[in-house]
Amino acid sequence: MKTKVFILVLCLQCLILIGMVVQQESLFRTAQPITIDAGVYDPRDPIKGQYVALSYPAAILNLSQFEGGHPTAGQKVFVEFSPEKNSPIWAPTRSSTNCFEPSSTNQLFQAKVVYIEETQWTNNKSVKLSDPKVHVDYGINRFYVNEEKGNPRGRLTAVVVARKNGKAFLKDLLVDGKSIRSSTE
Q1: 40-58 confidence digits (pLDDT tens)
Q2: Cβ(146)–Cβ(184) below 8 Å
Q3: CA 110/CA 139 separation, integer angstroms
Q4: Which end of the chain has the lower number of beta carbons within 10 A, N or C?
Q5: pLDDT digits (tens, 9 = 90+) for 149-170
Q6: Which residue, 116, 123, 98, is CA-closest to 108?
Q7: How does strand 66-67 pair with strand 90-96?
Q8: What is the pTM of this model?
């Protein structure tokens, strides 16, 4: 009897793991990928391995563009991305503290407010910004790579997909338009 229960529990755990993998792969295959500008800021971690730590210009939003009230640090916000004219790059076009339905051609991303920058140092003085900057985290800041390719050179862009609720996943990283995966093999 104990053996049967053990095998049943083991099979259930395997099914859960397989379901998680199938769900993720399904998202990567069916969701519309978008491309956003990225930059590298810290390419090495001796504990977690070789990865590319990414920053995004789209992670700094203007406070005046937020709908539904002013966000606070730690709050979940929603950002709509649309393609830039004559470019494969997508950029933020709308931000809100409340979830909303994006237009049919755009993508909605969920983010967390890291902090709000209300002042800036200029000429050794703290100057209050007329339009404070909201720094957000989309949860797509790391891309693990082979050890030889930890510090890519060139223009970086990230290929990102999102679930219906806006949760973003990093699908690929492009260096000068070419996948970093193909350049590491």
Answers
A1: 765 556 666 666 778 899 9
A2: yes
A3: 9
A4: N
A5: 556 677 888 888 888 888 888 8
A6: 98
A7: parallel
A8: 0.75
